[in-house]
Amino acid sequence: MTRIVYLNGNWLPEADAKVSIFDRGFLFADAIYEVTGVVGGKLLEYPGHSARLQRSTAELGIACPLTPDALLEVHREIVRRNELREGLIYLQISRGTADRDFAFPENPTPTLTLFTQAKPVLDNPKVATGISVALLPDQRWARRDIKTVQLLYPSMAKMEAMAKGADDAWLVEDGFVTEASSATAHIITEDGKLVTRGLSNAILHGITRASVLDIAGKAGIEFEERAFTPDEAKNAAEAFITSATNFVLPVTEIDGRPVGEGKPGPRTLRLRKLYIEQKLAEAL
Ligand code: PDD
């Protein structure tokens, strides 16, 4: 089935959606994005994604072409038009099209695109085994709090991790884990405390992360927001990642060493269950 995608107010078959070679998203990675999970044809965590989108555009001085309510309607419409039951919606806003110049153009018209990707997200076979990660240096830019499409280094890191036989990379800077290539990194210590890095420009402010901390607090799982070292991660009882389509996904191996007993940890699996239950109940 060919997808129907959204481009600047138009609904088009995917092959007909074309963006200029002068688009600053293409020339300068001058664009931001959001990924929203979809289950049962409903949007997960939409308010969080909408708020972060507003923040990312504001940080870059990109004018958001639609109001939050209108954007929500576009998300719902793209689900309807593609009969999407499970998967994700990708949204991107670039500053727009202008002759190539490092200075931002005056009053450009932003390019707004959305497309869907259908895939099973609830029944992830990796939940049963956990994923393996390789520790690699974090060589991204310093404003990781803005969700830009500047994703070449995370992509290179993912390839390097895979070349080492791992599923993903955990990035390390100044002796501390920052995050995964496209997810937030968390550990659970031997004494049962969830540890996740505090918010700063060093990491993306994960929407799933915020919800998981909230759920952990209510479930009586103590948590601490602080940076942790690669050694702490290797010696943790449990480890996991969070993101819009992975939800809470166990990490069972770090640099070839098993985490805990080398299988998904009970607290991680409990958090995944609680997270999915709550977010399905709140889905829009
Ligand atoms: N990535 N950190 C990074 C670097 C990310 O790219 C992501 C998400 C996250 C988790 O954020 P959230 O919980 O809001 O999805 C953390 C998306 C899913 C992607 O690039 O596909």
TrEMBL record:
Its cofactor is pyridoxal 5'-phosphate. The keyword Transmembrane helix does not apply. InterPro entries: Aminotrans_IV (IPR001544), Aminotransferase-like (IPR036038), BCAT-like_C (IPR043132), BCAT-like_N (IPR043131), Class-IV_PLP-Dep_Aminotrnsfr (IPR050571). GO terms for molecular function: branched-chain-amino-acid transaminase activity. One of its GO terms (cellular component) is cytosol. It comes from the Bacteria. Its EC number is 2.6.1.42. It catalyses: L-valine + 2-oxoglutarate = 3-methyl-2-oxobutanoate + L-glutamate; L-leucine + 2-oxoglutarate = 4-methyl-2-oxopentanoate + L-glutamate; L-isoleucine + 2-oxoglutarate = (S)-3-methyl-2-oxopentanoate + L-glutamate. Pathway: Amino-acid biosynthesis; L-isoleucine biosynthesis; L-isoleucine from 2-oxobutanoate: step 4/4; Amino-acid biosynthesis; L-leucine biosynthesis; L-leucine from 3-methyl-2-oxobutanoate: step 4/4; Amino-acid biosynthesis; L-valine biosynthesis; L-valine from pyruvate: step 4/4. GO terms for biological process: amino acid biosynthetic process; branched-chain amino acid biosynthetic process. Keywords: Amino-acid biosynthesis, Aminotransferase, Branched-chain amino acid biosynthesis, Pyridoxal phosphate, Transferase. Belongs to the class-IV pyridoxal-phosphate-dependent aminotransferase family. Acts on leucine, isoleucine and valine. This is Probable branched-chain-amino-acid aminotransferase. It comes from Rhizobium leguminosarum. The lineage of its organism: Bacteria, Pseudomonadati, Pseudomonadota, Alphaproteobacteria, Hyphomicrobiales.
